[in-house]
Design a protein that fits this description.
Four copies of one chain form a homotetramer. By secondary structure, chain A is α+β, with helices and mostly antiparallel strands. Chain A has one domain (4-117): Hotdog Thioesterase (Thiol Ester Dehydrase, Chain A, Roll). The first copy, chain A, has two helices and six strands, in the order αββαββββ. In chain A, strands 1-2-4-5-6-3 form a six-stranded antiparallel β-sheet. The longest helix of chain A has 16 residues, at 40-55. Chain A is globular, with a radius of gyration of 14 Å. The two termini of chain A are 22 Å apart. Chains in contact: A-B, A-C, A-D, B-C, B-D, C-D. At the A-D interface, strand 3, strand 4, strand 5 and strand 6 of A face strand 3, strand 4, strand 5 and strand 6 of D.
Chain lengths: 120, 120, 120, 120
């Protein structure tokens, strides 16, 4: 299934398995903010795309309820960001995912999200 | 100052005053996810842009430490999203902002963010 | 209805109205951590109690899904903490509340929480 | 070092190593809310105590900036809660910890927290 938003930003879905997904984004100049550093929304979006892929990976539609993001380290133009989403809980009508974002192997952000499962 | 990321997504800075900012984004088909609904990263990004503008509005550079986002209601293609960031606290080396995102007047998301003030 | 946890800590419910609640807690030495300052769990708990009261105020049982807390300023022994919870959204099967915690009139923490409405 | 708040609630520090800590709490009737279920503040507090122990484990004083909590499953009276805090990042003047809370082996809550290192 195509994802126009990911195409707009250059986010690629590298892996998707049940409850698990990996996305990638190379930081280009199109993603910079007024400080000249990558916009927080770009780093969030690669994590959110992994979260969306993992939480919808079992075929039941999932919608995001709550997310949070920790910005840990600076990211530079040219860095390849990798976001890895893992399922940490499924129960009742919700599920939880943790996403680690790395740049060249170092953790630069942590994301956590909770979804509502529409058909559970 | 130009912001390439905001231009890439179509986010406009409508108002910026000390400790306060408003951004806008019209939801186009470029911002849809694989469900055919606006990507969570797009809604986050308009909020994050207001947060960045408000937190840098006093001239001291601010970097995001932590953010969180609550997705409250569906958003449709064609909706104009408005994100309003207000400063809720400044103290020591950090400041906090709350951002309300509305679509045609109804709250669709709430965002909160904390920044580190580099020169405080 | 009695709340044993609030009695254990000394949290009092000052106001409860539909979608709104105020709780209070005087910081005693029983609430200090190993630094000799009030434990983060104590400041959280007064906010969480206001959130619980406000979200259950309409008669339908509500259970907490997600919360977040921002610690903004130091609190001292003897301070009276006041937590004010306001409903910011109700829709579908969830509702959202923002809670401001003040000590002697100054904001010392911000809390946000989302509940699932069991009978919605 | 004694921690009056933990004694008030019955939280015990089981393990503390550099960047790592485990706390425990048996859910008693003193920790119930008006629903007759364990108060969210009690479950948060056992997680927060592990976070505080882990983040102060290296000798430098750490103060909490931001925390978030996901309530995943119900907890019953008599359950022994175990909170395990692990350091996920240290850099600049902040550090991040993830805390998993289990009851009899099942994850019932996830907590994440960020501290400011006073002497870094």
């Amino acid at each position: 299934r195509s994802d126009a938003f990911c195409e707009t930003l250059g986010i690629e879905l590298a892996v998707v398995e049940p409850g698990y997904a990996v996305t990638e984004l190379v930081v280009t100049e199109d993603l910079l903010n007024f400080h000249g550093t990558p916009h927080g929304g770009a780093v969030y979006s690669v994590a959110d795309a992994a979260f969306a892929a993992a939480s919808n990976s079992r075929g039941d539609p999932a919608v995001a309820l709550e997310t949070n993001m920790s910005y840990l380290d600076a990211v530079d133009v040219g860095d390849r960001l990798t976001a890895t989403a893992e399922e940490t809980h499924v129960g009742g009508r919700t599920a939880e995912y943790e996403v680690e974002v790395t740049a060249e192997g170092d953790r630069v952000a942590t994301f956590r999200g909770r979804v509502y499962l529409l058909d559970a």
